[in-house]
């Protein structure tokens, strides 16, 4: 049974829709938030737990846009979505009329939240951190000597490959997004899942 992968980041939506996105990066940690001190409610403290990768090579997954939303149809502008009947969902028929009317005015694509099915073809671990002087670091903790990213030039190619396959337009946009979402001021571990689109 294919398991779902959910996407919500508008930055990578175009790459999901044209299927140039062939990878996702997911945390290998879970933060358990501790009870807040009632005297200092602004202090957010958590304990980090390790998480195992969710997928292995050969697994299949279904990719969804905003899976938890009740709306089945979404507009690529990110500002419009609409429900449709259960029957319409199952038949994958056309979006409701209101969605079509919106897309004429908006000129963006209307798409169903089930984006397609993929097969995982590569899984590896990376570590990312935000350095104090506005720099960034990405490494492969399981890198074996002799691997082809062990030179500076290949390392640059590797990082470029990572953010492009992830659907980001530029490196800064990529790092800023991950820093904001996962706070990279301390190094964090992630799993990189790469896939081929099946549908
Ligand atoms: Zn729109």
Largest sheet: 6 strands, mixed
The run of helices and strands is: EHEEEEEEHHEEEHHE
Overall structural domain count: 2
Euclidean distance between termini CA atoms: 15 Å
Estimate the global geometry from the Cα principal axes: globular
Strand content: 25-35%
Describe this structure in words.
With 199 residues, the chain is α+β, with helices and mostly antiparallel strands. Helix content is 24%, strand content 33%. It folds into two domains: 9-60 and 118-197, no CATH class; 70-112, no CATH class. It has five helices and eleven strands. The strands form three sheets. Strands 1, 2, 5, 9, 10 and 11 form a six-stranded mixed beta sheet that branches. Bound molecules: zinc ion (ZN).
Element layout with pairings:
Layout: E1 3-7, H1 13-17, E2 23-27, E3 29-33, E4 46-50, E5 60-65, E6 73-75, E7 81-82, H2 86-91, H3 97-106, E8 110-112, E9 114-130, E10 136-139, H4 152-165, H5 171-182, E11 188-197
Parallel strand pairs: 1-5
Antiparallel strand pairs: 2-11, 3-4, 5-9, 6-7, 6-8, 9-10, 9-11
Bound molecules: zinc ion.
Residues 75, 77, 79-80, 102, 106, 108 line the site of zinc ion.
Short structural summary:
This protein is α+β, with helices and mostly antiparallel strands and 199 residues long.
Supply database-style keywords:
11 strands; 6-stranded mixed beta sheet; 3-stranded antiparallel beta sheet; 5 helices; 199 residues; alpha+beta; 2 domains; 24% helix; globular; single chain; binds zinc ion
